[in-house]
Each structure stands twice: as C-alpha cells, then as structure tokens.
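INTERNAL TRANSFER SHEET
From: sequence group
To: structure group
Subject: Transporter

Please process the attached sequence and return the structure record in the designated field. Keep the field labels unchanged so the import script can parse them.
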Amino acid sequence: MPKNSKAVKRELDDDVTESVKDLLSNEDACDDSFKKSSLIVNSREGEGKECDVEEGGSDSEEEERPAWNSKLQYILAQVGFSVGLGNVWRFPYLCQKNGGGAYLVPYLILLVLIGIPLFFLELAVGQRIRRGSIGVWNYISPRLGGIGFASCIVCFFVALYYNVIISWSLFYFSQSFQQPLPWHECPLVKNKTSTHVEPECEKSSATTYYWYRDALDISDSISEGGGLNWKMTVCLLAAWSMVCLAMIKGIQSSGKVMYFSSLFPYVVLICFLARALLLKGSVDGIRHMFTPKLEIMLEAKVWREAATQVFFALGLGFGGVIAFSSYNKRDNNCHFDAVLVSFINFFTSVLATLVVFAVLGFKANIMNDKCVALNTNKIAALLGNGIEATLIPHHINLTQVSQVTADDYHQMIDIIKGVKENEFQKLGLESCSIEDELNKAVQGTGLAFIAFTEAMTHFPASPFWSVMFFLMLVNLGLGSMFGTIEGILTPLIDAFKVRKEFLTVGCCVLAFSIGLLFVQRSGNYFVTMFDDYSATLPLLIVVVLENIAVAWVYGIDKFFEDLKDMLGFAPYRFYYYMWKFITPILLLVLLCSSFIQLIMTPPSYNAWIQEEAVEKTLRFPPWGIGVCISLVVMAIMPVPVVFCLRYFNIVDEGSGGLAAVSYKKGRIIKESGRPEEDDDASLIHGKSPSEAPSPMPGNSIYRKQSGGGTEGDTAPNGRYGIGYLMASTPDMPESDL
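Return from structure group:
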C-alpha cells in the first residue's frame, strides 16, 4: 500500500464531506428529520426527486450484509432447505401409487418445465436485489408487495406444524435407547385374576398402538381436545429451542449447523440402503417399486401430483430460497446453483425411495411368512372338516408348519380353490401375497412412525438403527425449518431494521405458544388441517404472482439484461420462453386443478377410534371448516390488501414509512423526474458515470472508493457490486422496505 494512501483517503473524505455540506445547504426539500446517521432513499410521488442524507463523518464503516463463509455452506443450506421429510415419506408413496418407475418420467419433465426455471428465478432476484421476500417484491412492483407478506404468513403457518413433526421424531429418538424397543410388542394388562394383551393393541399392531396411544394419546375426534400431552409439549419446547439457538445469529450460526444437518441424512440413507440390501426380501421391494406401469402415465392426476411434488420439494414460494440467496455475492453463478440443487433434490428422493422399499420389501416378507404360518394352521385344523387330506400334496407336511414355504402354501391354495370354488370364501383362507403387502401404500406419519418402525424391530441391533433413523428425520426437519424461519426473519429484518436476536427469540416463543394447539390430544388432527389448507393453495398463488411480476410486470427483457450483467453471460433462451409463457400457463393449470380438487373434496381427516382400533374418515365440524377457510384467506389476504392500498393511493407508493431503504453510507441525490417514455433502463441494471445521460452526481448510488481515480468508481450492480447498493434510482420502482 502506498505510504501516502492515508493522506489521499483523508483528502477524498474531506472532499465528500464538503460536497455534502454544499448540497445540504442548497437542499430545501429534505426534511431535518432525515439528517441522521443513515442514508435514506425516499421517492416521493408527484415530486419526482430523491433526498439522500449521509453522515458527514468519514470514519464510520459501511454497513455490510452478512455473507456465507463459503460456497459449500450456501449449497448445503439450499439443499438442507429443499430436501426435507417429504423426500423420505411423500415421494416414495407417490412413486408407488402412480406407476412405479414410470412416475419418474412426468416428474423429471415437470422438474425441467416448472421446478428449475422457478428455482432459478427466486435465486436470481434474491441474489441481485439482496433482500428478503418482502423487499424483493416491493422493489420489483410496490403494488405486488403483498406477495412478500403472504410468503411470510405461509412460512409461519408451516413452521408451526412442521416443528411438531420434529418434536415427534425427537420423542421416538429419545425412546430408541432401549432393548427391545418399546414398540416391539403389545403391552400386557394385569388385573387380580389374569393377564391379557391390551385390547386396542391386539386389534391393531404394536407399532400402531404405540404411535396413537403411547406417543400421541390421541382423542377420538378433533372436537375432543383432551388437554396437553406433556411428553410432546417437552419435545416441542426442545425442538423450538434448537431452532432458536441455531438461528439466533442468522446465517453465521445456522450455516455452521448445516454441515451436519444437511450431510448426516445422506450418511444414514446410504447405511440403511447397504443394510437393507442384505436382508431377505429387499430386492422384492425394489423390484415392485421400479416396475413401470406405463398406462397410469396417461392419467391427468399423475401429472398434477408430480407437479405438486416438484413444487413443494424445492421450497418454492416460501421465501427461504430468496432469503438464503440474498446473502450471496452478486456475481455468483446462481444458474449453476439452481440446476445443482434441483438434481441433488431429485436424486435424494430416488435414494430415499430405494431405502424405503428395500426396507418395506423386507417387512413384506416377514408379514407374508406370518400369514403363511397362520393360514397353514387353519388348513391343518380344517382337514377332514371341510378340506380332504387328498387335496394336500404329498411333499407338504402340515405337522411341521415352520417348514411350509410360501410356494407350498400357494400350491395348496390353488388346488383347494380349484376343487372348492364355491365354498372357498367360507374357509376364511388368505392369499398371502408379497405384492398385496407391498401395495398397502403408506405415506407421511404412517410410513415413518408405523411401517418403518415395525420393520426396524426385525433388524439385528434394532435400537441402533432406530436411533439413526429418527436422528435423520430430526436433521431433515431442522434443515427445512432453518430455511422456513429464514423466510420469516430476513424480510422482517430488512423491512423494519430490528435486532436479529430479539426477532428470532420473539418469533420462536410466539410459535411455541401457538404450537401448544398441536400437542394436545387432538393435536394430530390440527397438523392434518394446517398441512392440507395453510400452504398448498396460497403458495401456488404466490408463485404464479412471482412469475407474472418478473416476466410481465417488470419485463422479461429487462430481467435478462440484469441476469447477463450479474452472471457475466446471457442465460439460455429456454428460460425466456419458460418464464414468459410455459411456466405461468402450467402453474395456472395446476392452480385451477388444485382449487377444483379442494372444492370437490369435503374437508375431512382420519380419526383414530380407540374402541374399534381403526382409522375412520370424519368430516370437520362447522368451526373446523371455518378454520380451514380462514387459513387460506389469511395467507392470501396481504396480496389484494397491499394492491388496493397502493392502487387507490391510501398508502403512497413512495411514502417514507413503506418506501424508505436505509443505508449507512451513500451519496446525496437530487434529480428531477424523467419522462415516462425514457423509463426503459433496467430496474436493477446499473450504469457507470460515463454512461449516464445526465452529468448530475445523483444518477446512480455508488460505493465510495478508498483509492483515487474514476476507474475504480464502478457501478455497484456490475460484476463488482456488493453490499447494500442499488442503482438507477430514478428508474426503479420504489421499495417498500
């Protein structure tokens, strides 16, 4: 560094200070209240000018936005957010239900047509504008500023019940350090005269009983609250404490946690796959999984469910993607990130599907062996009393049931069915097919807490595998929770400039308090309600509006200029047509079909009836239907409210309270408004002083350089622009931050 650099810097700072004083002395429009330590860019409608005030002192440092420590940390954060519980317990179910391996074809097609373009769009706007969802959409179009608020509300609703699922996983994790596992067999009830198996467990199964009775202690309907379940309340408190501690310092603290929470699930999945492949019947499950049923691909429902899964798998519309990318450098290659994270998500879903069906194939073989043994005993009991001994092949010895194989049993059944075709139903014999067992499709909590836990009880060293599985679920959930909470905190901090620590603690305390609704005895039914109604329709509307805002309101051509300026190369023309035509049309079709399905399907939930030990589908009571409607309306309400406030000028599009963006350093700007027809410059694209159409210093806001010369005064939105800098302020829509 030159010896006289400090002197040069001091002279430059003195020049800037003098220019500030000169401008302030001639500035009548700037109110004294604006003369504070932060620069305020305030656009006033009708005046066509901007008043910027900078603190005179040159020693204070420019406020910097937090940044990721490394590219790996950022990628892990995005992967952790997008890869969640749905990849483990939703994708395998959809794959099985919708044609096995054939389902991957529509999924991949829609991933390319919907998933990657929208994911790229959210990454790009977040990285370029460097704000959370509220700031981004206010910046692009103040009248569509409600999109950001809607995203925040949906994130909050999802966080409320998503953390409850993490608390369930924590409970099972804490109970897994036992041999045998507590859900290994049905409990015994002892009285003065006898000991018998718990009737509710005997009618269902050990894992089903443990889930509904020991873990949830569930009531018979949503109307029966039943008080708090203290075990789950403690687990929910632990879950929110973990989220709060990880998020309290923002990405500086949560980013470090990502190394474990994002990578550990892959270690567990690979270990599970290796172990499952060594078990009897695992290949049956995988074969069943990937046997394509091509005729199902022609059904519209398959494509709708594939589109919905693509949509939610990548976390579109939540604001978490935008929040995470806003901490990137502006020249980061977000197109590469979008493709990479999307395909990591897809291959994770396929890996999880392999694991799930390898384990379920093992479980199906065990259940099939039990079925064969039970029905062989029935045949032995019916010999001479409905079944003639001559019908039994000579090589089958019914006195040794354990030696009767599945093939032997099916041979007997075929003979008996052929001879006693009319009387076969009365004999009460089952077919005992592995395919039938695998066709019992389960998803969500039924897969994780019932089917999978039952399979693990038959593993050697079952407590170890149970600990690993539920620790994996906790990490998958936390990775998604970090992105969801970031989608709430980052926009609010950008908008209202509150302390991150206070807002994080306040948000978590409020969410835990409301979350007590989900840990009462009827809480599982409220989780179902929020899962079905608080996110699906509102998020679809949010993403449709996001796409329209960028492609049509702001302009796809301007957006492509911004991307070229930011990335250093023009994106493929493929994205131009996707964003402008194909993706909006597909989203509108998906939105309409989801809305029709919602209208045609009466609001209902699956209730566990204790006396009968079965699940029954019940309608929500009138107040429950009211809550369902309220969830959808509350999530969408900010969009029309903000639009009306802006459109009818109830809240000025340039009002100080909603349009001010605070920075610590900047330059004074006073410039008359440009004619409407000249407003063709890019909203985000910056120009260097030499390119500016006016010699006035207010054409762009630049970071003050420490070295001399005009060459270093580069436009902040070019390849070297970082920090809280925005350019071309006369041409940009007013921000509502």
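Handover comment: The radius of gyration is 31 Å. Residues 504 and 597 are 37 Å apart (CA to CA).
Transfer complete.
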